[in-house]
Amino acid sequence: MAVNENAELEELIRNATGGGSATPILEPESTDEGGGIDFDTLLLVARRSLLWVVLLIGLGVTGSWLFLRYTKPLYQSSSLLKLDEKTEAGELGLGGIVGTGVENRQSINKLSGEVELIKSNIIYRRLRDSLGLNVTYYAEGTVLESELYGLSPFVVEYQGDILYNTKFSLDITDTKTFQLSYPVAGQTQSGEHSFNQPFKVGGMTLLIRPSAMFNKEVLDRKYHFVINDEGAINSYLDQNLMVSIVNPDANTIQISFQDYTPAKARAIVNKIDTVYLQEKLAQKSAASAQKLKFLDQQLNENRQNLQDAEENLQNFVRRTKTYDVRSIVAELKGRVEEIEEERLELNEKRQLLADLAKMVDQESLAPREDMTVEESIPGLNTLADAQLSQQLGELNGLVFDLRRVRRSNRETTEAVQSRLDRVNYVKGNVQRTLRQSQDQLRKQSALLDQKRNTFDNELQLLPERATEEDRLKRPLAQYVGTYTMLMARKADFLIAIAGTTPDFQILSPASMPSAPISPVRLMVYAIGLASGIVLGLGLIAVRYLMHNTVTSVRELERATTASVLGVIPTYDKEKMSVSKLVVDKSPKSAISESIRSIRTNLDFISSSKKKRMISVTSTISGEGKTFVSVNLGGIIALSEQRVVILDLDMRKPKVNLAFGAENVKGVSTILIEKHTVLECVQHTSIPTLDFISAGPTPPNPSELILSPRFDEMLAELHQVYDVILIDTPPVGLVTDGILIMRKADIPIYIVRANYSKKTFLKNINKLIKANNFTRLCTILNDARASGLYGYGYGYGYGYGYGQGYYEETKPAEGALSRLRKRFS
User: Fold this and answer.
1) What is the 8-class DSSP label of residue 757?
2) Residue 105 burial (CB count, 10 A)
3) Where is the AAA domain (predicted)?
């Protein structure tokens, strides 16, 4: 926005200076238009857009009505199914036997499989055959066509090379004949045929016969039918059939179908329920037969393998004469241990015999006479040889007797010798007995070694036999387990088949849909209404955001610190190409009253001064400063004050045009002292109102205004006139206006409603702050009824905009004019 305004200012500068180098003292600032929403402006824009908002809402509602009028209603029919398996075997106490039978509650994966079954070609094929979806019949209407499901007045039969998915138009001529037309290779073929008479259509034979719905009323309507192929029917079912899992815990599935014909939707859902039940029963029968066949086949194969394994194990037992190698190993190990124990006992006995032989030779069997041999040699009892024990006791007694006799007798005595011989004899017997016992123990030890060797040889052969036995028993155990398992599974399956009944419940059968699911009338109208409202609000928002001009006194007061002298209403009585004096022609008009109000406000501001100088300026050209200057001067002059209007806009003079006078001499010629003030003063139709035109355009207007001659001219005018009213150049373009405003008692700034940019108001504040214009006042020009606090006024000027005024008596307005003014 700021870029466009700067471009406009530069263009106006070039027009005003004729291509000169005048530099604007003020430039429009690209600033934010306030800290928030201007609700007054928003209300103004909303009032002006109210008619468009109403039209947009009406357009939205009309669009909704047209949409409902030319959109076919879509209906939906649904049914709720419960899939369950009721097992009687569990109720008979065979639940533990069945084990892997059918579970009472199906998992989510199983339900998903059922959903896919319902939407499979298996179900679709049965639907095509049972519902007659191969041919679709339609009745043509003014805009829409309607399907005649089950209500067609004729039936089509066909065979041969069928023309699928082709529209055949049928116009019934009378009760016996009809006209049939159809497209072939881009051209329409037609012909007249008779009911119940076959006829050829290309390579296809058609037979059309009347149905039970055929009556005289069908003669006034047009029909057509389409023969659908398998792909078209499957696509139609896929697009409109919906199957969903409602509750996995309860095993419930909902089947829904959408169609433009409610009776067809209901029939398809009911047929799906029936076909699905039939398919489930057929699948159960086929699956049961296939499982039984598989179990029997596996049992036969396993039975033969089991027999072969049993024969191999029997041959092994016959060859090895053993059935359990590992038990024999344990037995042989026990025998070897027994032999080792016996060997240890024999060795102990042999050692004991050797010790006894030494003791016999040394005659030291018992250390005391009162101690027996058994007490002296505890291990003697282990020999379990009573004869040896007796001989040792006898020998021990003889030895002690010999020792006693030797103590009292010589060695050569008969008593000693006889006893000595007796000891030697007994000792010889004991030694023989010991030798015999040692020989016997030696034989027993050899026999044990022989047995140990035999057992060791047998143990060396047993690992190989155990491995062979394990190799033969392993497949035997496997085949036995498999055979037992298969037999149990077959028994369980037979029990499950006998005790399980399919439970298929239709919890909620398909009903005839009473209301369409799409389009929903209330929703469509709500969308149309909301669209109209949104577009209307969008229009208001766009117009508000694009609203960058001053429209009301409220905006002027909010954006500037200068006082507002008043408001001049729009002058639309006549169109003028240039500003003119109008207050003398219409003294009672609203525009005259508004300028009188401005004059009164000026009196309050400068009540202490009899001589006043007032300057009138604006930001750019076209805001009406010349019009305000001329008419304000006229109103002041009508109050018996002498007023002179100076046109100091020497680059673009307009005051002389307002009075219809020439501009051959004026301010510029006075300042260069070519003419005097009296020579340049021109009179008007008001006796107390004079003016001085700008004169020929000089090359240096600013330098002329700064010259002392300008002050002298003002002093001369003050001697004759009470009010000097100066029409200055726009301050937004050149510096001349600011130079004059510094000399004026009351500088006035003109803002034109709906023309001046809001950014221009920033220049007023900047001008007051930079030059200390404390008495700077503003006037809102060309304000319409909405720009004031309740009354209408305004004017138009320049660039082809007109001016008008309102008399006290206004012509009557029509209703259309009042409505237009109301919304504007």
Assistant:
1) B
2) 11
3) 612-771
| Between 694 and 436, residue with greater pLDDT | 694
Q: Could you tell me the two tokens for 639? A: 């109050």
State what percent of residues in the chain have pLDDT above 70: 79
Q: Which residue, among 724, 583, 595, has the nearest Cα to 658 in the 3D structure?
A: 583
- CATH class for domain 553-823? alpha beta
Phi-psi region of 795 (alpha: psi -120 to 50; beta: other; left: phi over 0): beta
Rounded Cα distance, 432 and 353, in Å:
12
Is residue 102 scored above 60 in pLDDT?
no
- Look at residues 432, 450, 434, 452 and name the one whose alpha carbon lies nearest to residue 349: 434
In whole angstroms, what is the distance from residue 689 CA to residue 641 CA? 8
pLDDT tens digits, one per residue of 468-479: 666 777 777 777
What single-letter amino acid sits at 384?
A
User: What pLDDT is recorded for position 792?
Assistant: 35
Q: What is the pLDDT of residue 379?
A: 65
Q: Tokens in use for 700? A: 């240096």
Q: What residues does 783 pair with on adjacent strands?
A: 569
How many angstroms separate the CA atoms of 660 and 578, rounded? 10
Mean pLDDT of all residues in 618-638: 90
Radius of gyration of the chain (CA): 67
At residue 748, the 3 state secondary structure works out as strand
d(CA 26, CA 735) in angstroms, rounded, equals: 9
Whose CA is closest to 279, among 503, 126, 132? 126
Strand order across the beta sheet in which 241-247 lies: 241-247, 252-259, 75-87, 500-508
User: Number of helices and strands (H, E) in the chain?
Assistant: 24, 21
CB–CB of 519/68 below 8 Å? yes
Task: Specify the range with the lowest mean pLDDT, choosing from 81-85, 224-228, 656-660.
Answer: 81-85
Pairwise CA distance, residues 316 & 310, whole Å? 10
Q: Which amino acid is at 567?
A: V
Chain center to CA of 774: 63
Between CA 736 and CA 728 the distance in angstroms is 7
Contact 723, 636 (CB under 8 A): yes
Given a contact cutoff of 8 angstroms between Cβ atoms, the answer to whether 489 and 497 are in contact is: no
Give pLDDT, residue 18: 39
- Torsion 170-173-178-179 (CA) sign: negative
Residue with tokens 């498999």: 482
Token pair listed for 53: 């908002």
At residue 15, does pLDDT exceed 60? no
Residue 796 binned pLDDT confidence (cut-offs 50, 70, 90): very low
Contact 77, 513 (CB under 8 A): yes
